[in-house]
Amino acid sequence: MALMITDECINCDVCLPECPNDAISQGEDIYVIDPNKCTECVGHYDTPQCREVCPVDCIPVNPNYVETKEQLQAKFERLTGKK
Predict the structure, then answer these.
(1) N or C terminus of the chain: which is more exposed, having fewer CB within 10 Å?
(2) Domains of the chain, residue spans
(3) pLDDT tens-digit series, residues 3-57
(4) Which helix (H) or strand (E) holds 33?
(5) Pairing mode of beta strands 31-33, 24-26
(6) 23 touches 38 (CB < 8 A)
(7) In this protein, which residues make up the domain named 4Fe-4S ferredoxin-type (predicted)?
(8) CATH fold of 16-80, please?
(9) Could you say which DSSP state residue 13 is in?
């Protein structure tokens, strides 16, 4: 599943450099996560790094983008060219 950033985001900037897929960007009011690039760090790390550093815990699973670990791994491979 892709992650999302809720409106509880305080724009602290700590999540942005942590995303290995460059899925996080500044939105109109808060940071946003591109579900086409988010792999929940599958292929890179054991846990989503944005969640690890978020001081307000505002990065839940996006219910509109339900994906299995296998699908996230396939997305990682497609984005990086690695297996």
Answers:
(1) C
(2) 16-80
(3) 999 999 999 999 999 999 999 999 999 999 999 999 999 999 999 999 999 999 9
(4) strand 31-33
(5) antiparallel
(6) yes
(7) 1-29, 31-64
(8) Alpha-Beta Plaits (3.30.70)
(9) S
Provide the residue type at 76 as one letter. Answer: F
Task: Dig out the tokens for 37 from the structure.
Answer: 């690039």
User: Residues 16, 18, 21, 22: what is their CA dihedral angle, to the nearest 10 degrees?
Assistant: 20
Q: Is the pLDDT of residue 83 over 90?
A: no
SS3 at position 71: helix
- DSSP calls for 6-70: -TT----SSSGGG-TT--EEE-SSSEEE-TTT--TTTTT-SS-HHHHH-TT----B-TTS---HH
Query: Within the chain, how many helices (H) and strands (E) appear?
Result: 2, 2
- CA dist 65 and 82 (Å) reads 23
